[in-house]
Amino acid sequence: MVEKEPDFQISEERNEWDMERIHVLAERLLPIYADVASGQMDDPKSQRYLNELIGILHELHPADMATVLESLPQQERVMVWRLAEPDEDGEVLLEVSDVVRETLIESMGQQELLAAIEDLDADELAELAPDLPKEVVHEVLESLNAEERAQVVSALSYEEDEVGNLMDFEQVSIRADVTCEVVLRYLRRFESLPDHTDKIFVVDDDDILQGVLPIRTLLVSDPEEWVHDVMSTDVVRFRPEDNIEEAASAFERYDLVTAPVVDANKKLIGRITVDEMLDVIREESEADLLNMAGLKEEEDLFAPVIDSFKNRWMWLVINLFTAFVASRVIGVFENSIAQIVALAALMPIVAGIGGNSGNQTTTMIVRSLAMGQLNLSQWGRLLRKELAVALMNGLIWGSAMGAVAYWLYGSMGIGLVMVAAMTLNLLLAATMGVLIPVVMERFGRDPAVGSSVLITAVTDSGGFLIFLGLATVFLL
């Protein structure tokens, strides 16, 4: 009988229901958490709530459990974490965000941590090690055999942004001078293949990578065919020192599931897998989004007030300074505004459209730099293109707003100033939208960090200066 595929919509609704129910149950049980922890609960209703909560938690996949924990305030999070399935604690720690992981680890004792991570693979231990207490890491390393210990130490020797840091040491390798039938018999000896195994690595006697044998090729090949006749030698491979974001881009570009990692002598030392690369892509996208908003790092939704303050204050201070500069620009033209009150109503339009246009340009440039689509030597050509777009937008929408201004205030002069100011501010926005991320990239800074704040500051002050300056010169 063919097994029916699960209905995604039903599964999704079930997960949403579980999430809401977990929140409700955790909130009800929190006031009596001491009784929950000690097992001395006398109230039958509370005991039903507890049993229901435990039942739901123990059915959750580790990834869903991570989502639940990230959505709970810290006290409820700790309680739910205590009630979760202990056998899956290590997998959940791998799934949660870094900031939430810290709070969970802080709530665990040394023996709990050791029990949680004892069954993790070497690459998973290496991923968690920076967040674990040193004594726990030391004890875990002592419990490993020599090969596993060497693998963990090897992964920890690489920087966080290098391929070697996320390298998986579980892979299947074969020799080229055997038949496909021999390979199939060899594979049947495994209880299960490593996750995401879509290809087998072909090496020589010294473990030098010769090529790969895709599983789909193996399955359709004649059993008597030799591996060296059916294997592929055109292999995307990485060095452990390669940048992890560039590797993730290669996975996306070439639709990879796994790829070999080789040392300087082309010796196979590990592999990287698509699940890790998806995490890298997601984390990079989230980091760019946070940086463009002026947030220094990822933030726990329910972090203490002081922690959130520390994460946000720097760019708010910069924004406060730039807003003060913009106010001083307006202050210089107080007499002009007093004589032509319409200027006060129209100048936010000039600044606002400039900021929006500049953010569009900056977002496009930052994305192109992140994906490797833009070479810094091309910035001049790109600037000319963006200036042409800004000029077209300025003339079209500036003329539209100029007509509206003429209709509202009956002044041809105000209408013409509106056209000129919007066009010039859009040109300024295009220029700064290209230059800010390009200059930051050239000086080794993350072009996403604060770009939105900076471009808004420039277009606000510049827009006020251009509009009020033109009005003062031509209308007074």
TrEMBL record:
Compartmental location: Cell membrane; Membrane
Domain CBS: 167-230, 231-289
Gene3D superfamilies: CBS-domain (3.10.580.10), MgtE N-terminal domain-like (1.25.60.10), SLC41 divalent cation transporters, integral membrane domain (1.10.357.20)
Domain of life: Bacteria
Transmembrane segments: 313-331, 337-355, 387-409, 415-440, 452-475
Coiled-coil ranges per UniProt: none
Key words, A-Z: CBS domain, Cell membrane, Magnesium, Membrane, Metal-binding, Transmembrane, Transmembrane helix, Transport
Membrane topology annotation: Multi-pass membrane protein
UniProt keyword Transmembrane present: yes
Similarity field: Belongs to the SLC41A transporter family.
Function per UniProt: Acts as a magnesium transporter.
Subunit structure as annotated in this protein's UniProt entry: Homodimer.
Protein name (database record): Magnesium transporter MgtE
Species, as recorded: Vitreoscilla stercoraria
The gene coding this protein: mgtE
